[in-house]
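Narrative of activities, Objective 1.

The group set out to show that a structural description can be obtained from nothing but a protein's sequence at a throughput compatible with the screening campaign. Below is one input-output pair from the validation batch, recorded exactly as produced.
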Amino acid sequence: MATYKSDIEIAQETEMLPITEIAKTAGVDEKYLEQYGKYKAKVDYNILNDVKKEDGKLVLVTAINPTPAGEGKTTTTGGLADGMKKLGKNVLVALREPSLGPVFGVKGGAAGGGYAQVVPMEDINLHFTGDFHAIGAANNLLAAMLDNHIYQGNRLGIDPRRITWRRCVDMNDRQLRFVVDGLGGRVNGTPREDGYDITVASEIMAVLCLASDITDLKARLSRIIVGYTYDEKPVTAGDLNAQGAMAALLKDALKPNLVQTLEHTPAFVHGGPFANIAHGCNSVTATKIARRLADYTITEAGFGADLGAEKFLDIKCRMAGLKPSAVVIVATVRALKYNGGVAKADLGKENLEALEKGLPNLLKHVSNITNVYKLPCVVAINRFPLDTEAELKLVEEKCKELGVNVALSEVWAKGGEGGIELAKEVIRLCEQPNDFTFAYDLDMPIKDKIEAIVTKIYGGKDVAFTPNAEKQIKTLTDLGFDKMPICMAKTQYSLTDDATKLGAPTGFTVTVRNVKVSAGAGFLVALTGEIMTMPGLPKVPAAERIDVDETGKISGLF
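Output recorded for this entry:
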């Protein structure tokens, strides 16, 4: 049986170019470059004011509903860009930063895989340039100022039972989901129920990713609602005079990070909200800089197209005025088998029957992109080592039978060379005119917008709102927050709110149990099913395999 090098071994064997050379390739003048060592740098967003060039094409990479191990969107994004570069195109990558939660949990890192990675992968997957630490610090500063305000006399009349702002930590830690704090007598604060979110679920992550500059960042931070008064009026970070200090912590984090692929294609890696509990896209700033510098920008959005792509299109594109030229839907044989009912442990075995049974999931995502959003798309079959020729042939034949555009992607094993077929198809699609549209109108009532997502995108029949959600929707409407887009918090493993319902179910009802406003980010969050904003570690976390030797060389990251 063939032996394969691990992702980290491949990454460590690659000779990176100095980041100054990558910046030159990208068209970034040295005066905008702030180096973090030899192989990574931040780019000042003021470059947008100086570079006079027509914005390039924007390509979104998304996927079908994934297995717990992920499907290779980042791998495909990097490999596709490297393939385009081999065809002589001026191309840049725009990705999200990984969270330490999945890195040490079940999914592993998020710097791509095989011969289609962004490097230095260890840095990117661990502390990188400190952006997430800055976000966590700003989040927790606001929490500290809020509790201090109550302790120091509570001039604003904040009801401690109606505080909505939670502390955060960038780690999967179920122990912190629900806590009681402020114990130990009067000098140690006011006792109350509290809880932690993972940093990527913090509204400050969303704010950072959607802010255009420091002025916009401060304005968004000041609008964040942290709780309500005894007479039910919202209290904001601005009311606590916290936005200036928070922005000071975030001033460097606001600048996009520049790195490279294994084949030296420039890549912006910036911001990292989860798509199941947040909007799941990299920063607007990084995307806009990439488009200004390159003729093609390849970006990705988290999890399946029902989450990441929906939010990319309905939230990010709407807020930032972006219009994608084409969409790539990544599908793997193993994810299709998973959606056909095969257990995770058996995904490596050939199973043509389950493969065919899982295809409706792929077709639903294709239909959403082409019929709801009216964008051209191609299915990239992301080849894995254990995929058989019969399985790959079946997927390709079935897609072609149904008129679905398809290309085999072998970037994991071959890098850019394995992405040329996909790259040619994407370039062709980018030249086609499209009538990009949204899944719902902002002027629709909150309930109607949620129902539009459930019926049009998920394929459901109905939405059930709990009494709590009904009350929250009325309050948010009365407060004037009803014209915002919707950020659905939902399991990534199913089109429904139930992770066990695989494939492309129909006739189901999605339960919305909580609706809250992220006034700084500018959207409403609808929590469905049993979704958690703080994940837990699995029985055998990836952290148990990660190590570092006496030379500082890290092993076990994947």
